Amino acid sequence: MAWSLRNQMLVPLGALLAFFVYHLASRQGEHYIDELDHVEDTQPSLIANQLGPLKEADLKSDLKQLQRENPGYQFAVFRGDEVLASTISLAPRDLTVIRVIPTVSPGEPGRRWAGHIGTGTQKWYCLTKCRVPTWPADTRLLSLYSYNYAVMLNEQGKNRINAAASLFVVLLIGVVTWSTGSLSRRVRRIQRQVTDIAKGDFRPTVEVRGHDEVDDLARAVNSMATQLQQMQETIRITERTRLQGQLAGGVAHELRNGIHSARLSLEVFREVCRSLTLPSEDMLQNANEQLEVTETLVQRLLSIGKNQERGEIARPLVDVLDDVVTMVEPICRHQEIHLVTEWDMTDEVVQDAESIRAAIVNLCLNGIEAIGRHGDLSLGLETHHETIALRVRDTGPGPDAALADQLFEPFVTSKPEGIGLGLAQVKQAAESAGGAVAWKRHARWTEFVITLPRQPMGDREEEVLAAVSSAD
To answer: Quick one: 261 and 347 in the same domain?
Structure first.
């Protein structure tokens, strides 16, 4: 049979406490009996010293009063061999025994003699003959102390001591039971958490209040649970990233081939129609730029999970925003969506212009898709002390509330046909530029904000112009 930790502590400790207390009770009982014996030995002499002058007429009543004051005692007064008074009936043979009992001298213990005394039912008495200082020299006081009464006093004393010891043991065991129970409950809570950890629940749930060894163990378990939770999250993100890379690589490979063919077809169409008058040359240019953005996204998909460096082109932020407007404005016009742009001229520069442009276009296209038809789309820029904020707002219904906390994670989407990589790419672009992306829903607007560190053109003007020229 397996004993719990509580019983393993409680049983030995309870047995040890009981043994110790009852041993002390036994010693105390022996001491009590010794004290009682001493009192009983000296009591006859004390009684004799307290008696007044002898009055034979009142002697019998005085002995009765003396008997009431000293339970367990019988008294008799002798003058020579004559019994003057007695509180007990004495048989002739009792007198024979009493005559041979010597008188106890002052300071000498009594109860050295014992015998069956009395008429009818005889009882054992301890006999002590004393001289009373105020009485005549030939008169003696005989004290007869009941042996049964002495035994009864001894048993009562032992019983009281044993009862007190038992009560003390019960209280001690109660305290020990509560203490070991409290300790056992704390250990069981830790055990339950370890079991939960083994099942995959890494929440730190053990409450820590003190600073003893069990609390140190609880802190260690909580710390282990937190670390395991972090490791689980790291593994989950790593696995999702790996799957994202595998999926993105396969999709991007096929897309790149299609984009390459589409761009060649546009170039051929432009060459063939060079001599013709087209309704809008901007439409071909816009289509070509859309393909460039799509190709940039494909390149980013192919770079997922790989530690390869991509070429970054720095451009003025206003130019990037103008490109975005050029790309999304025809779509908004077709969907009857009101496009609003809100920014002033600024000399801010983005290091990786293609990634930022692709991220903003992605947010705008998501907004257009959410609106459907007849709505508002807003693209704005705010400049702060150390950061710039790119805001894309739309009047669509917004993301599913159940996905609010996981919106920027790979493969998280509420679209039946979506794969959940668009916003993950937006987050990657923002973080690669040293910024962040967030979203919120207020009133009828859904707002996405890309926050980037400020990079004024300043002394980098020649570098930016060179990069733009090479890109052209």
So the answer is: no
